[in-house]
Design brief:
This protein is of the alpha+beta class. The protein has helices at 2-30, 99-116, 183-200, 282-285, 369-372, 456-460, 532-536, 551-562, and strands at 36-44, 48-52, 59-62, 80-87, 95-98, 120-129, 132-136, 140-144, 163-172, 177-181, 206-214, 218-222, 227-231, 252-261, 266-270, 291-300, 303-309, 312-317, 339-348, 353-357, 378-387, 390-396, 399-404, 426-435, 440-444, 466-475, 478-484, 487-492, 513-522, 527-531. It folds into 6 domains: 25-115, OB fold (Dihydrolipoamide Acetyltransferase, E2P), CATH 2.40.50.140; 118-186, OB fold (Dihydrolipoamide Acetyltransferase, E2P) (Beta Barrel), CATH 2.40.50; 201-274, Beta Barrel (OB fold (Dihydrolipoamide Acetyltransferase, E2P)); 278-360, Nucleic acid-binding proteins (OB fold (Dihydrolipoamide Acetyltransferase, E2P)); 365-448, OB fold (Dihydrolipoamide Acetyltransferase, E2P) (Beta Barrel), CATH 2.40.50.140; 452-562, OB fold (Dihydrolipoamide Acetyltransferase, E2P).
Length: 563
C-alpha cells in the first residue's frame, strides 16, 4: 500500500503537471501576434476587462472597447470574446490584445468575402464628402454620387442618417479603400421588376405608377422597372401649362396604357383617359342661353378663354364683354384667374368650341333707349369726341350719339366740325335714329330749327330779286357769292359780264363785294343761280330794302312763333 502510494501519487502529479505544461506550451505556441483568437472574460474591473486567451498571462482590454462603462455592462465573467493579439509579451511581460481591432479585421474579412462573392453589405450614410457620401459599414466606405441612385440625386444631404444595402464594387485592404454602389442593387431590382412588368403589360391596362421625372412636355412614370411617358396633353382634359402644376417627383398615380411597343419598350400613358371626356355630353349640359360661371385661364388680343369645367373652355370675344364700353384689350376688363359669369351663345361639340358672352348677363341698355329717347325728342349733352365726319355727344354712360357733319347745319358748308365746336361743349340735338342691332345713335343739330330751303329761302330769294354779296370762292367755271352767312349762290362764268370772260380771276377777286340777281332757285338741289351781268341792268335793287331783313332774323322769328 505504501509502495503503491509512494509509487503512484507523486509520480502521477508530476505526469499531470507535465502534460498540462506541454498542453500550455502547445497552446501558447499556436497563439501568434496579429492573429484573432477567442478568449474568456475572467474579471471585469472599473476601467478594464481581463481576458484569458490561453497564454501564460492574461490580456487587458479597455472597457471603452466594449462600448460600455462599468455601470451599464451586459458582459460578465465567463463570456467569450474574439480579440486581436497585438503583442504576446511586452517589456513588462503583459499580453496586449484588442477587441476593437479584432472586430474591424473581421469586418474587413466579411467585406472582402462580399466583394469576391458579389454579396450585399448594409450600412448607414454618415456624412457628405467630396464626390459623394461616407458610409459606415463597420468601417468607413465611399459611396460615389453617381452610385447613389438610378438617377442623379440633387440633394445628397437628405440621405444622411439613412440605412441602405450596398454592393462592394472596389476593395483594397492595404489602402483601406472600399467603394460601394447602391445603384447596382437598384438596377438588379429594376431588371427583375421590368421583366415581370413587360410580361403582363397590355394596352388599355390601368396601372399604379410613381412620378420619376418631370419635363416641360410631360412626366416619366415608373411602372415597375420600366418608365412610361405621360405627355402633358394626356394629363387632363383641361388646360395645363406645365406638368409641375399637377405633379411632383415621387407622386403615386394611376395611369392608363395608351400604347406599348414591345420592341422598343416604349410606353405611352394617359391619365385623363381614365375619366370620361367632358365634351361627350357638353351639348346637353350647356345649351345656348345657359348661364355659367368659370375661371379666366388665358387672354388674347381678341378675347378671354374661360374654363367652365375641367376640360371645357369657352371664348368670350372682346365684342361680347360690354354693351357700351369700347374695349381695346380684354385685360382692361378681366384678369387671368378671375372668376366671371357668362351666358352660352353657341356651342360646337365637333370642334370643341363654346362661344360665351359676359355682357348678356346684364340687360342690354340699347334695348331701352327707344323708350327713353323717342325719335324727334331733344337731348342736351356734352361733346365727347370730334372727328372729320361729325361730333359724338354723350347720351349716358358708355353711349354716344353721332351728329354727322351733314346734320350740323341746313345752310353752312362745314369743312370740319372743329370749326364750330369744342370737346366738352354742351349742345342741343334732335334724336333722328336708334339702331339697336348695330348700336348706333343718330342725332341732328340742324333739325332743331326748320329747313330754310323749304320755307324761308324760296320766299326771300325769289327769282329776279337783286342782292349785294361777297365773292367767296373763284373757280374755272365761275364764282360763288355769299348772300348771307351760310347762303351762297353760283355766278356762272357766262353771267359775270356781257363781254366774253376767259378766266373769272380776270374780272373778280375773293372778298370783292358785288351786286347779283337771282336767276334760278332749285330747292331740291339747294342751289341758287346768280348773275352779275343781269344785276347791272336791273333797276329793282332799291326795292330790296323791304326784303333786307336777314335770314337769321326770319329764322329767329319762325322759332319764336313755334315756341
Amino acid at each position: 500500500m505504501i509502495d503503491h502510494v509512494e509509487h503512484n501519487s507523486p509520480l502521477h502529479d508530476e505526469e499531470d503537471f507535465a502534460a498540462l505544461l506541454e498542453q500550455q506550451e502547445k497552446s501558447e505556441s499556436m497563439i501568434q501576434e496579429g492573429a484573432i483568437v477567442r478568449g474568456t472574460i475572467v474579471k471585469i474591473e472599473k476601467d478594464k476587462v481581463l481576458i484569458d486567451i490561453g497564454f501564460k498571462s492574461e490580456g487587458e482590454i479597455s472597457l471603452r472597447e466594449f462600448g460600455y462603462n462599468s455601470e451599464s455592462l451586459s458582459i460578465k465573467p465567463g463570456d467569450q470574446v474574439d480579440v486581436l493579439v497585438e503583442i504576446l509579451e511586452d517589456n513588462d511581460g503583459h499580453c496586449r490584445i484588442s477587441k476593437e481591432k479584432a472586430d474591424k479585421l473581421k469586418i474587413w474579412e466579411e467585406i472582402s468575402k462580399a466583394c469576391e462573392e458579389d454579396q450585399v453589405v448594409e450600412g448607414v450614410i454618415v456624412q457628405r464628402v467630396k464626390g459623394g457620401l461616407s458610409v459606415d459599414i463597420g468601417v468607413k466606405a465611399f459611396l460615389p454620387g453617381s452610385q447613389v441612385d438610378l438617377r442623379p440625386v440633387r440633394n445628397l444631404d437628405k440621405l444622411i442618417g439613412q440605412r441602405y444595402k450596398f454592393k462592394v464594387i472596389k476593395f483594397n485592404k492595404k489602402r483601406s479603400n472600399i467603394v460601394l454602389s447602391r445603384r447596382a442593387l437598384l438596377e438588379e431590382e429594376r431588371e427583375a421588376l421590368k421583366k415581370d412588368t413587360l410580361d403582363k403589360l397590355q394596352e388599355g391596362q390601368i396601372l399604379d405608377g410613381q412620378i420619376k421625372n418631370i419635363t416641360d412636355y410631360g412626366a416619366f412614370v415608373d411602372l415597375g422597372g420600366i418608365d412610361g411617358l405621360l405627355h402633358i396633353t394626356d394629363m387632363s382634359w383641361g388646360r395645363i401649362n406645365h406638368p409641375s402644376e399637377r405633379f411632383n417627383v415621387g407622386d403615386q398615380i394611376k395611369v392608363k396604357v395608351l400604347k406599348f411597343d414591345s420592341n422598343t419598350e416604349r410606353v405611352s400613358l394617359g391619365l385623363k383617359q381614365i375619366t370620361e371626356d367632358p365634351w361627350n355630353n357638353a351639348e346637353r349640359r350647356y345649351p345656348p342661353a345657359t348661364r355659367v360661371s368659370g375661371k379666366v385661364v388665358s387672354l388674347t388680343d381678341y378675347g378671354a378663354f374661360v374654363e367652365i369645367e375641367e376640360g371645357i373652355e369657352g371664348l368670350v370675344h372682346i365684342s361680347e364683354m360690354s354693351w357700351t364700353k369700347r374695349i381695346k384689350h380684354p385685360s382692361k376688363v378681366v384678369n387671368v384667374g378671375q372668376t366671371v359669369d357668362a351666358v352660352v351663345l353657341d356651342i360646337d361639340v365637333n370642334n370643341r368650341r363654346i362661344s360665351l358672352g359676359m355682357k348678356q348677363v346684364e340687360p342690354n341698355p340699347w334695348s331701352q333707349l327707344k323708350e327713353k329717347y323717342p325719335l324727334g325728342s331733344k337731348i342736351v349733352g356734352k361733346i365727347r369726341n370730334i372727328t372729320d365726319f361729325g361730333i359724338f355727344v354723350g347720351i349716358e354712360e358708355g353711349i354716344d350719339g353721332l351728329v354727322h357733319i351733314s346734320d350740323i347745319s341746313w345752310v353752312q358748308r362745314v369743312k370740319h366740325p372743329s370749326e364750330m365746336f369744342e370737346e366738352g361743349q354742351e349742345v342741343e340735338a334732335i334724336v333722328t335714329n336708334i339702331d339697336e342691332q348695330n348700336q348706333r345713335f343718330s342725332l341732328s343739330i340742324k333739325d332743331i330749327g326748320p329747313d330754310p330751303w323749304s320755307s324761308h329761302i324760296p320766299v326771300r330769294y325769289r327769282e329776279g330779286s337783286v342782292w349785294q354779296g361777297n365773292v367767296k370762292k373763284l373757280t374755272d367755271f365761275g364764282a360763288f357769292v355769299e348772300l348771307e352767312s351760310g347762303i351762297e349762290g353760283l355766278v356762272h362764268i357766262s353771267e359775270i359780264s356781257d363781254d366774253r370772260v376767259e378766266n373769272p380771276t380776270d374780272e373778280l377777286k375773293e372778298g370783292q363785294e358785288v351786286r347779283v340777281r337771282v336767276i334760278n332757285l332749285d330747292t331740291e338741289k339747294r342751289q341758287i343761280g346768280l348773275s352779275i351781268r343781269q344785276a347791272h341792268d336791273d333797276n329793282n335793287y332799291a326795292d330790296q330794302g323791304e326784303a333786307s331783313t336777314s335770314l337769321g332774323a326770319l329764322l329767329r322769328g319762325h322759332l319764336h312763333e313755334e315756341k
